[in-house]
Amino acid sequence: MDFETIAQIIAEQFDRDVDTLEEETDIIDDLGCSSMDAVELIVAIESATDVRIPDEAVDSIRTIGELVAYLNEHSEDAEDED
Questions:
Q1: What is the CA 37 to chain-centroid distance, rounded?
Q2: End-to-end Cα separation, the chain, in angstroms
Q3: pTM as predicted
Q4: Burial class, 57, CB count within 10 angstroms (exposed 0-12 / middle 13-18 / buried 19+)
């Protein structure tokens, strides 16, 4: 999963210009993500990537870069299950 794909999803969810997003962008502090926003974001990302993100993982992900790293690590797990 590449940064650009995830940044595009986040930009759409938060009505932001994708060019303003960086790997270091903090999803909560920089984007003002509420708990409801987080649920909607996770649903959008899970739909786009076919990777399930459990609640305990969501709690530990702060930046877009961390989210991309999580998806890359776990997308291989999803492929192994096929």
A1: 12
A2: 18
A3: 0.88
A4: middle
Give 56-80 pLDDT, tens digit per residue: 999 999 999 999 999 999 986 555 5
- Burial (Cβ within 10 Å: 0-12, 13-18, ≥19) of residue 71: buried
In one letter, which amino acid is 24? E
Q: Where are the domains of the chain?
A: 3-81
DSSP codes joined into one string, 16-80: --GGG--TT-BTTTTT---HHHHHHHHHHHHHHH-----HHHHHH--BHHHHHHHHHHHHHHHHH
The verdict on domain 3-81 having CATH code 1.10.1200.10 is yes
Q: Is the pLDDT of residue 81 over 60?
A: no
Residue 12 pLDDT class (50, 70, 90 cuts): very high
